[in-house]
Write a structure and sequence with these properties.
Layout: H1 2-17, H2 44-55, E1 61-63, H3 72-80, E2 85-87, H4 94-99, H5 101-107, H6 112-125, E3 131-137, H7 154-166, E4 173-179, H8 186-192, E5 197-200, H9 205-213, E6 217-220, H10 224-233, E7 237-239, H11 255-258
Parallel strand pairs: 1-2, 3-4, 3-6, 4-5, 6-7
Helix pairs in contact: 1-10, 6-9, 7-8, 9-10
């Protein structure tokens, strides 16, 4: 989901700069959690028509599949045709993304029913706490991605949260544990996060993303999920490249830096 958000946001920013209207095929039908899904042209009919036309060769397809490539020729093709399909994870227009970032965040604002539900849950759960830490527990495909380099145990995640609590100047921390592993060992977190209060997320992917976005800091392995969560309120984000790394204020970076360093 978040890969698709960032991919489209780059293309959207390019389109805004060049006066071209864009539509995200993924957000036409697959992720109905954001404001973009209610904007003009975002519906299943648009998706089906574009998919069919591209498959039949009626629409040119411009692919961005090579990191760091010269994109000038592809951009000229995109400008020369009224309609094209853009694909590939390496459509990257960083400066334009930042220029149109406020518009991007409005497009991907959470639908009110999601924001209201998650905000009420977070406020109640963090009652009596001074800081909210979002702990992103990423499992699933991380068991093999990069050779499992960022596939951390529950004890390692809990230790990260405990180190954050230890440097939080006596303020009480509420740790929101969000992730894609339904089998995580809750007792490890309840007993391993130091003096912090531990709360487990209980929503779908979009609700977990929203919950992370409402935190004061986020910790997790390198991931577009935590990156997008940090985008909403420019939340300090610590990407744990090593589960045992030191935890200091300098460990936390902002979105505008990290989004240029996605692995």
């Amino acid at each position: 989901m978040c890969n698709n958000m960032l991919q489209y946001a780059h293309v959207y920013a390019w389109g805004r700069e060049h006066g071209r209207r864009t539509v995200s095929m993924r957000f036409c039908y697959k992720y109905p959690y954001f404001a973009i899904s209610s904007t003009r042209g975002h519906n299943f009919l648009t998706y089906a028509a574009a998919k069919l036309a591209a498959g039949l060769g009626l629409l040119p397809v411009v692919s961005f599949n090579t990191p760091g490539e010269d994109t000038a020729a592809k951009e000229r093709l995109m400008l020369s045709r009224r309609n094209v399909v853009v694909e590939g994870w390496y459509a990257r227009f960083y400066d334009l993304f930042l220029k149109y970032k406020p518009d991007i965040m409005r497009l991907f604002a959470f639908r009110p029913e999601i924001l209201n539900k998650v905000s009420a849950f977070a406020d109640e759960a963090a009652r009596g706490c001074d800081l909210r830490l979002g702990l992103h527990v990423r499992r699933g495909d991380y068991k093999t991605w990069h050779g499992g380099q960022y596939y951390y145990s529950d004890a390692e995640y809990a230790a990260m949260a405990a180190r954050f609590a230890a440097i939080s100047s006596g303020r009480r921390v509420c740790v929101f544990v969000c992730g894609n592993d339904p089998q995580l060992d809750r007792n490890v977190y309840l007993n391993g996060c130091g003096a912090a209060k531990v709360v487990f997320a209980r929503g779908n992917a979009a609700e977990d993303l929203c919950l992370l976005s409402l935190c004061d800091a986020i910790i997790g392995p390198p991931s577009t999920f935590s990156l997008v969560a940090a985008m909403y309120r420019d939340t300090p984000l610590c990407w744990a490249y090593d589960a045992r790394q030191d935890m200091t204020p300098d460990s936390f970076k902002r979105f505008d830096y990290l989004f240029r360093h996605i692995e």
